[in-house]
Automatic annotation (TrEMBL):
GO terms for biological process: fatty acid beta-oxidation. GO terms for molecular function: enoyl-CoA hydratase activity. Pfam families: ECH_1. This is Enoyl-CoA hydratase. Belongs to the enoyl-CoA hydratase/isomerase family. InterPro entries: ClpP/crotonase-like_dom_sf (IPR029045), Enoyl-CoA_hyd/isom_CS (IPR018376), Enoyl-CoA_hydra/iso (IPR001753), Enoyl-CoA_hydra_C (IPR014748).
C-alpha cells in the first residue's frame, strides 16, 4: 500500500509514524485510518520491517503545525449516512485496538491539538508525551456527536468515570499541564524536538529489555484493564506462565546469577541500554 497521508521512518530500530495532512490539521479521514490500519496490521504479523520483527518501539505523531491530530475529518462525516458513520467508527475503533495489540510499545508524541479522534488515538497508545502548547479534549457533543473511536471506554479507565463524564459531556479542552495532572500524558516538554528526543530515549531504554517480556507485559496490562481483580490476575498469570516458555527467561535469569549483562534472543536493538539488576 502506498501511503499518501502517513510518513513512516525508521531510525535505529524505532519507527516514527507521522500523520501528514497539514492542510487539514492532520484530521483522521477514511484514508488516514485505512493507512494506519494497514501499517499496524503489518506490525502485528511481524512484517513491518526487514527480518520480520516488530519495531523496538513506535512513535505516533502529527506533521508539524497547530495540531497533533485535530480530530476526525468533519467534512467527511457531515456527508455520511448512519451506515457509513458506523463503518467509519468501526474503522477508527479497529485502529485503536491495533495500537493496543501490536507487540511493541507505542508512544504518542503530541504537539498541538489532540481533540476528538486525535485524543482517542492518544488514549490507545501505551503512554503519551506532550509539548506545553498541546490541548486535549473530547468535544464531539459540540457537533451533535459522541466519541466513536473508544473515548467513552478508555478515557474513564484512565481518569476515572466522573472526570471522563465531565470532559465528554461539556466537551471542554484540557491544556497540557492539566492533562498531565489527570494522567492523560506522562510528561510535558517545552518544545517538539525535546519531546521527540525524550520519546526516542525511553523507547531505546525499553528496547534494552526482553522484547518477549515487554510484549507479554503489554498484553497483560491491556488485558487486565477493566476486569475484576480476580479476572485480572488470571490474565497476568497466563502471561507469567508464557514467559517461562521463552528463551529470554532462561537467558535473563542465567545472566543475573552469573552477574553479567543478558543477551536476550528477542532483543530488537543490539546497542540498547539496560538497567543492571546486579552490583559488584
Amino acid at each position: 500500500m502506498d501511503y499518501s497521508t502517513l510518513l513512516v521512518e525508521e531510525e535505529a530500530g524505532i519507527t516514527t509514524v507521522t500523520v501528514s495532512r497539514p492542510s487539514a490539521r492532520n484530521a483522521l479521514s477514511v484514508r488516514v485510518l485505512a493507512e494506519l490500519d494497514h501499517f499496524l496490521s503489518g506490525v502485528l504479523v511481524g512484517g513491518a520491517r526487514p527480518g520480520g520483527r516488530a519495531p523496538a518501539g513506535i512513535m505516533l505523531t502529527g506533521a508539524p503545525g497547530p495540531a497533533f491530530i485535530a480530530g476526525a475529518d468533519i467534512r467527511e462525516m457531515a456527508a455520511m449516512t448512519p451506515a457509513e458513520g458506523e463503518r467509519f467508527g468501526r474503522l477508527g475503533q479497529r485502529v485503536t485496538l491495533l495500537l493496543e495489540e501490536v507487540p511493541c510499545p507505542v508512544v504518542a508524541c503530541v504537539d498541538g491539538y489532540a481533540l476528538g479522534g486525535g485524543c482517542e488515538m492518544v488514549l490507545a497508545c501505551d503512554f503519551a508525551y506532550a509539548t506545553r502548547r498541546s490541548v486535549f479534549g473530547q468535544p464531539e457533543v459540540l457537533l451533535g456527536l459522541v466519541p466513536g473511536f473508544g473515548g467513552c471506554v478508555r478515557l474513564q479507565r484512565l481518569v476515572g468515570p466522573a472526570v471522563a463524564r465531565e470532559l465528554i459531556y461539556t466537551g471542554r479542552h484540557v491544556d497540557a499541564l492539566e492533562a498531565q495532572r489527570l494522567g492523560l500524558v506522562n510528561a510535558v516538554f517545552d518544545g517538539r524536538d525535546e519531546m521527540l528526543t525524550a520519546a526516542r530515549e525511553v523507547l531505546g531504554r525499553i528496547a534494552g529489555n526482553s522484547a518477549t517480556a515487554v510484549s507479554l507485559a503489554k498484553a497483560a496490562v491491556n488485558g487486565a484493564g477493566g476486569r475484576t481483580v480476580e479476572a485480572g490476575l488470571a490474565v497476568e498469570l497466563d502471561a507469567f506462565r508464557e514467559a517461562f516458555t521463552a528463551d529470554d527467561m532462561r537467558e535473563g535469569t542465567g545472566a543475573f546469577l552469573a552477574k553479567r549483562a543478558p543477551a536476550f534472543p528477542s532483543r530488537t536493538l543490539s546497542g540498547a541500554t539496560r538497567e543492571p539488576l546486579f552490583h559488584d
